[in-house]
Amino acid sequence: xxxxxxxxxxxxxxxxxxxxxxxxxxxxxxxxxxxxxxxxxxxxxxxxxxxxxxxxxxxxxxxxxxxxxxxxxxxxxxxxxxxxxxxxxxxxxxxxxxxxxxxxxxxxxxxxxxxxxxxxxxxxxxxxxxxxxxxxxxxxxxxxxxxxxxxxxxxxxxxxxxxxxxxxxxxxxxxxxxxxxxxxxxxxxxxxxxxxxxxxxxxxxxxxxxxxxxxxxxxxxxxxxxxxxxxxxxxxxxxxxxxxxxxx
Length: 248
Ligand code: BV8
Description:
Elements: H1 5-20, E1 25-29, H2 32-35, H3 49-52, H4 56-59, H5 62-67, H6 69-84, H7 90-96, E2 102-105, H8 111-115, E3 122-124, E4 127-134, E5 141-143, E6 162-166, H9 175-186, E7 190-194, H10 205-212, E8 216-221, E9 233-236, H11 239-247
Parallel strand pairs: 1-2, 1-7, 2-3, 7-8, 8-9
Antiparallel strand pairs: 4-5, 4-6
Helix pairs in contact: 1-11, 7-11, 9-10
The structure holds ligand BV8.
């Protein structure tokens, strides 16, 4: 359900007014940010029948990898090819047009960087799909060609399996990205919460952190989410439509 034109305009003006009072703006994003690039989200019902019978939270886990390493790697390589064939959408481009905004993302794709965001202002809380790393954490990691991903293989240094350099359920978040994200969300005047169900922790806890330290929360989502209760303002609809108008 999208708002009628007049109250969309009023909502946009109100949201722009809120941002105008904010010095430091941080963007906390999830899979919905990349949805308009054709990248499946985690919890919307999958359009692609191939994977819709698998539970992503099972596939994105060490247990799932131990149980069927080839299935998990095939799933990631399917996602890698989708990302290679995707383009940054209007939301990524609007965010890249605002280098003052710090990007804290749960997404493992590189669409923010491909839209023009500087790597040093993008913090990937859940790692990235652009690299493989040693599952035994020997330190080996290697950039992969998303368009023709290498498939299941062993670490050339220690012979343990290689797996995408993402954070699986039950795995800890990368320390630097987490510490920097906490610091930025603690000091944010406004947290833009874009395209996330706010259902995965500790990442989703960053929204409450901003609130606790007196920051405002502006949510953009196509539907109510775990962030709605914490929102000072919520814009319902695709972020690819709202963000270009909001950030221009
Ligand atoms: C950890 C990477 C501990 C891989 C992912 C409390 C505290 C700490 C941990 C926990 C806790 N409670 C439970 C836990 C455990 C667990 C957890 O949170 N489980 C959940 C299911 C309850 N957390 C963990 O395991 C984390 N690790 O805590 O370690 C620890 C401590 C010490 C020692 C050892 C361990 C690790 C979590 C990371 C998991 N990895 N992904 C990969 O991507 O393959 S999470 C996965 O979910 C993705 O990263 C995804 O981004 C993330 C969140 O989902 P969303 O991004 O929000 O996507 P979703 O589909 O859910 O929603 C999309 C939204 O977009 C929707 O709302 C939709 O309406 C909206 N939308 C759609 N289209 C649009 C749109 N909005 C706007 N415009 C559109 N066009």
